[in-house]
Amino acid sequence: MNSEDCSITENSSLHPERGQQSTTASPQFATQHEGSLQVPIPCAVLNVVFITCLIIALIALSVGQYNCPEQYSHPLSSNSPVSSCSDDWFAYRRKCYFISTVTKDWKSAQNFCSEHWATLAFVDSEEDMIFLKRFVGRAEHWIGLKNEDGRTWKWSDGKVFNNRFNLTGSENCAFLNSTGVISTECEKNLYWICSKPFK
């Protein structure tokens, strides 16, 4: 982009009087003629305006993040300090969660969670359910819900399932994905979700 592109001139008279000579003083500005008004606007002015707009936008974003931090925080760490959960775990609603990247049967997944002072995940609120379903997507993840006696569904800590959400299927161990909570045979190898309260 050359300097001729950055200058704007306005002519109040399109036809100078006859007998006047036209001379060019510089390539970026047109020559002044009697009866004409020429106002050059250099690129520097446009750059200053552009940079000022950028600074204002950055300040507005910073103020918004300061006043409404929950709207700008990472979705995996909302409602909690970043340091509340160990590496590879994330915080949500006063719990630490671990999402596996490998598969195991239900019992082995529960043992893994126990080794980390956790259990297979409890889903004890609608907010947790919505969040976890969105997070795991279509992949099937074990949660801490099991039917050991064929009649009563219980969480990993022994609490009886209160039918807070719909559970489908006719097997003994439950998994969660984006469609809901479904039971399947406990020996199946699936991903899993561990959960534990903040320390």
List keywords for this structure.
4 helices, alpha+beta, 199 residues, transmembrane signaling receptor activity, membrane, 9 strands, elongated, C-type_lectin-like, nine-stranded mixed beta sheet, molecular sequestering activity
Summarize the structure in words.
By secondary structure, the protein is of the alpha+beta class. 25% of the residues lie in helices and 19% in strands. It is built from four helices and nine strands. It has helices spanning 43-67, 69-72, 106-115, 126-136; strands spanning 90-92, 95-99, 119-120, 141-146, 154-155, 167-168, 173-177, 180-184, 191-197. Strands 1, 2, 3, 4, 5, 6, 7, 8 and 9 form a nine-stranded mixed β-sheet that branches. The two termini are 60 Å apart. Mean pLDDT is 76; it is low at 7-20, 22-26 and 68-82.
Care to count the β-strands?
9
Q: Can you tell me the residue ranges where pLDDT is under 50 for at least 5 consecutive residues?
A: 7-20, 22-26, 68-82
The largest sheet, given as strand count, sense and whether it forms a barrel, is: 9 strands, mixed
Report the total helices: 4
